[in-house]
Amino acid sequence: MNRLMTAACAALLALPAMAQEGGVENPSRNEYRGELEGKKVVYVPMNMTSDATLAWARAIENQAEELGYSVETRDPAYNTEVGARAISAAISERPDLIVLQNPDVQSYARLIRQATSQGIKVVQLNMESMTPSDYYVGADWIGIGYIAGREIAKRCKPGEGPSNKVQFVMGVPTSALDMYLINGFKQALDEVGGIEIVSQQAAAYDPTKARSITASVLQQHPDLCGSFGVWDSMDTGTGAAIKEAGKSDQVFVVTSGAGASTACEKIREGIWDMEIAWDARLQGTALNVVISDALQSPMEAGAETRRFFTPNRIITRENMTEGSCWEPEDIL
C-alpha cells in the first residue's frame, strides 16, 4: 500500500512538469475522434433550396470535415420518387447512417424498415414517417400548432376581433407536420370555443397556390380574422394576398419556419405578424450531436428510438432583436 501511494504521489507531482513541457494527450478525445473517422453518412432532404435544408447541410458538413467522416447529400428536388431511389441506392451502399426528411408519413416507411433490417441506422429529420427509426430530430409540430391557435384565438374569439373566422393553409395533407400542426391548432381553438375554421386547403408548400387560396377565401369571407400557415416560404403568398386586399390590419397572420433572416424581413414588411420558429441553427446542432452518438454507439440499428424535439421561439415585430433570425454564416 505504501509503495502504491508513493507512486501515485510521484505521478501527481510530475503533472505540472508535464504541463510545462507540452501537456498530455486526452485519451477520451482521441477515442471519440477515432470512432468517427472514416464513417459514412448519406443525407436525403426533400430539397436543397430551402433555408432549413441548406442550414442542416452546412452544419453536418462542418462537423464531418472537422471529425473525419464523410457526408454525401442527395437532392430529390421535391420529387418523392427520386428521393426513394436515392435512399434505396444508399441502402445498397451500406453507409453507417442515413439522415432523411420524409415528404409524408408513408412514402419512405418501407425503406426505413429495409435500412434498419440491414443494420443501417436512420435519423428522421424534422418530418416523421409513421414508421419509427433510431432517431428523430426536429420540431414539436403539435406544440407549434397549439401556440398558433392560442395566439389567433386571443384575437379572434367571439367579441374580440372583426369576426371569429380563421383559415388554415396546409402544405401536404399526408405529411406529419400538417397532421400534427392542425391537431395542435384545433386543440387551442377548441379550448376557447366559438372560432370557425372557414378554410383548410393545401397549397403544396407553393407560395403562388397559397396566394390564390387566400385571395379566394377573402372574397368569400371579407371579415376573416386570422390565418395560420405551415411554412413561412409558402406563407409569403398568404401574406401577399392579405396585403393586396388591404386587410393587413384586420387579419392576424401566423406562420412557422426555420427562423432565417428572411423571416424577420417579412415581419418588418408586414407580410405576416408572427413566426413560430423551430430554428434550424439549433436543429443543426442537435443533429450533429445525434450523428455523433449514432456513429459511436454500439447499439444495433432498430434497437430503440430516441427523440429530440427542438424548442420553439415566437418572433414578432415587437420582440424582434438583431439576433432573432440567422444568416447562413451563423451556422457552425
UniProtKB/TrEMBL annotation:
<protein>
    <submittedName>
        <fullName>Ribose transport system substrate-binding protein</fullName>
    </submittedName>
</protein>
<dbReference type="Pfam" id="PF13407">
    <property type="entry name" value="Peripla_BP_4"/>
</dbReference>
<feature type="signal peptide">
    <location>
        <begin position="1"/>
        <end position="19"/>
    </location>
</feature>
<dbReference type="InterPro" id="IPR025997">
    <property type="entry name" value="SBP_2_dom"/>
</dbReference>
<keyword id="KW-0732">Signal</keyword>
<dbReference type="GO" id="GO:0030246">
    <property type="term" value="F:carbohydrate binding"/>
</dbReference>
<dbReference type="GO" id="GO:0030313">
    <property type="term" value="C:cell envelope"/>
</dbReference>
<feature type="domain" description="Periplasmic binding protein">
    <location>
        <begin position="43"/>
        <end position="296"/>
    </location>
</feature>
<comment type="similarity">
    <text>Belongs to the bacterial solute-binding protein 2 family.</text>
</comment>
<dbReference type="InterPro" id="IPR028082">
    <property type="entry name" value="Peripla_BP_I"/>
</dbReference>
